[in-house]
Structure formats: C-alpha cells, structure tokens
Design brief:
The complex is a heterodimer of chains A (112) and B (114).
Chain A: E1 2-5, E2 9-13, E3 18-26, E4 29-37, E5 44-49, E6 53-57, E7 60-65, E8 70-75, E9 84-92, E10 99-102, E11 106-111
Chain B: E1 4-7, E2 10-13, E3 19-25, E4 31-37, E5 43-51, E6 54-57, E7 64-66, E8 76-78, E9 87-94, E10 104-105, E11 109-113
The chains are: A mainly beta (112), B mainly beta (114).
Chain lengths: 112, 114
Amino acid sequence: GQNIDQPTEMTATEGAIVQINCTYQTSGFNGLFWYQQHAGEAPTFLSYNVLDGLEEKGRFSSFLSRSKGYSYLLLKELQMKDSASYLCAVRDLSGSARQLTFGSGTQLTVLP
Amino acid sequence: NAGVTQTPKFRILKIGQSMTLQCAQDMNHNYMYWYRQDPGMGLKLIYYSVGAGITDKGEVPNGYNVSRSTTEDFPLRLELAAPSQTSVYFCASTKTGTSNTEAFFGQGTRLTVV
C-alpha cells in the first residue's frame, strides 16, 4: 500500500519562494507527480520525477530523493494565480496495476 | 482534441436513486480511472481499467460499478445512492501505466445525494 503526507495549508507572499514537501511510503515506487488544482477545477499536471534530483520547469521545480521517500515542489516568484491546491501523487507498481495514488493536497494561499 | 469529457457536471440525487456518470476520452488512451474527491481531501481511486473489457477495483469501490466496452468510454454506475457518495467525481486517463505518463482529467461531476 501507499502512504503520502503533505502539509494541509501554506501561505506565502507574492514574489516570494515557497517549498511544498511530500513524503511517501510505497512498496513499488515508479514515479512521483505533482498536480495543481484550482478551486472547482480538475487537477492539471505540473511535474514528474522518477530519478533522484531536481527537475526544473520555469518557475516550478520538483525534487526527489527515493532513499528518503521525499519530494518537494518549489515555486519561485509567486503570483496570485498560484493560489491553488498542490497534489503529490505516487505511481506504484505493486499489485495488479500501476495505480496513481494521491496525497490530500496542500492548499497554498498567495497574499499580496 | 476534446481530451477527457465528463457528463453531467452537476447532479442532485435522492437517497436510493441510481445514475450513471459518463466519461469519454478521444486520445486513444488505454488506462482510465475514476476518482472521488471529498472537500479538502485528495483523490481516492474507485475503479480503473487497463483496456477495453478489463476493469478492477481501486481503494473505495463499494457502492459503484463500472464497465469498459470500448477504449473511449468508461461509465461509472451508482446503484442505491447514499449521502456518503456526495462528492466530486473525476475521470482520468493515461496512455499506458508506465511511470512517465501523466494523467489527463475531466472537469469533474459534482454529485449531491439528499
């Protein structure tokens, strides 16, 4: 089975940098995803990590340490539109299918 | 491409009623999923399918049924609706089940059971 933990809420100021952490426990790790979900909308894909290290994509970066079962999403130069829920999701190869399991999400509020 | 399309967007059901949530994708994806999301929570997997004719239970399958007669469609059936099934339902698809394939989501169905 899987267990994914992330903070429930975070607040940051426009223009600042924020780091959202995610820890996971899984028996068949095969990739970690970050999704962004604005209120009332569907999740949209942000980033993917399967090897240790940092993946950078514009203002967003995601880091993975497989030995520690740890990832973070780094958001730079925060904008008001970044206020959203950020979901950490882990793909697990154990069991009969490659299921994508989601954490409960971190609600980020960006203040002016 | 339309991507993943869900209907209806909103629905109110009375306890004991039944309904089908429709999901269709036009990306020729093999894997399809149904999730539910309760307020302030993450997504919980209800059912998934790895291809036409194949379905399997996820984390919270009780009270639901699915079918996958075609690659494109993956309807979710609620029999005897209960208040505990009040939630937002998301359908998603991926090309395969391999690690780097992102999931594409429909816009969600907001269901209230009263």
